[in-house]
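REVIEWER CHECKLIST
Item 1: Sequence provided? yes
Item 2: Single chain? yes
Item 3: Sequence as submitted:
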Amino acid sequence: MTDLAPHELRILLAVERERSFTAAAAALGMSQPAVSHAVRVCEGKIGVVLFERGRSGARPTAAGERAVVHARQVLRLLDLLGSEARGAESGVVEGELRIVAFRSAAAHVLPAALARLTERHPGLRPHVRVVRELGRGTAGEVADGRADLGIATLDGQAAAPGLLAGRLFEEAYALVSPAGHERPRGLPLVDWDENCGSYTRDWWGRQEWIPAARMNVEDDLATLAMVAQGVGMSIVPRLALLAAPPGLDVTDLGPQGPSRTVGYVTTPELARSAAVRELIRELRSAPLPPGTSRVD
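Item 4: Structure as written out by the authors:
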């Protein structure tokens, strides 16, 4: 197979992103026939069909989905080549640093670490996206080449294939209820989609007092607002409580209560980059958020 050139990889990514040869051509400043020809050349080099063509546009095949993941990763490493080489000579850490995190981690874990990091390395340009911990979550974004490092919930299993993971802290869950309610465990449950992952499911299953959810909302902040208004009670991780509205009582669930591990995920290649190494250093040395404990 003849190697694919960087411009060919960028064309594949544009077609996958836009789901259209015409839209990809417009985004790249090329003609549609030139994009179509470039994709056919790539398919010839690789030996498989990468996109299904039809009236609805261009959809990646299974082979195409795998190819664009590698294309993202290769292009990211090419982007890093210059800054890493310059840094080896000067000691300066610079360039873009792509980070994904679930909402409460983005709000309460990353800011202090990034403040210290960018103070020491003003040439760094962090780009932070909030990703819900559903399905493949933040780890999936890293595995697919869309992020350099993710703040993820780790459930004690090995890192996803191809990724490296490191634990940062253990986070306990607590019962939240409307302030002053006499029987909080008798209230209906308000829950959200990201709650009760594999790290807490066994505990939830053993608690006969927890009813089925009366209301399911999109995120933890909305859940807390509903509880504060008396809609019901909820069981939430401690990070979420750092932005809790007034009108809540918080009850500790004791040493047998549920908890989850929060950590980072990255790829072996990106773990060697200076920016990712420095961010991990800051995350590990940062003060622990309230309600969390250090893990070995």
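Item 5: Key structural point noted by reviewer: The longest helix spans residues 62-90.
Item 6: Recommendation: ____
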